Amino acid sequence: MSSLFSQEVPLIFYLLLSAALFALGIVGFLIKRNLITVFMSIELMLNAVNLSFVTFAHQWHQVRGQIFVFFVMMVAAAEAAVGLAIIIAVFRARATLAVDRIDLMKL
Amino acid sequence: MHLILFFLFAGFCLAGAINLLVQSHPINSALSLIVVMTSLAVLYLLLGAEFLAAAQIIVYAGAVMVLFTFVVMLLNAGREERTMGSRVARAVGFPAVVVLFAIAATVILNTRQMGVAALSDGITTVDDLSRVLFHELLLPFEVTSVLILIAILGAVALARHGHGEPDGESERTVGK
Q: What pLDDT shows up at residue B117?
């Protein structure tokens, strides 16, 4: 078996991937102009943090890290349901999904 | 093997995330987010979290993203218009992102304690997970089910037309 097939991956790579995904999520939050896509960027950030949790759970051999991810998933699912309901209500009231036009609370 | 799989699916992840940003149609963004979540499920499996990999696919790539695509199609969301966004986002937001990522990367790269992951590390079975979950963390688990119930009720109440008021009422108050 070649060395590539028995390789171990440093956990740092996983953490770097997680940081990169989180940064991309923030960039998406800033540059996207559609309410639904902004919401998707938030989901991307949640997933990036979940990857960190799983990595640390593997590092410290703790099951609780994985259980935390389980709870984050449940909360994210609830958040997605409520958030999309809010998006539907906003669309019904303002007939637009562009975040620039949804500025009732803007100073 | 582990290294190949990691780079393959980490590449899928980053490509999907970047595609999410550059696509202007929400449905394309939603599909790339599904790619990201499915690749993350494989990465969870590489780290030995088999239950989370299954839950990731069922809950995220399945339920949540179906909800997203459903809303995109229901609202007939078209191509988003490109504006430059706010000045604050450009002036403060992007440098802040770069600084945040730089700090995170520096901290991570300077960490000496992090070990390695190998495919031979063994997996965390549902058995191990549920033993801790249902013995020590039973109360948070039950509270989560109450949270889900409240979320369902809230979603129904929010999405229902008119909130029980006459038809023009909500538009007059909200859409001033």
A: 79
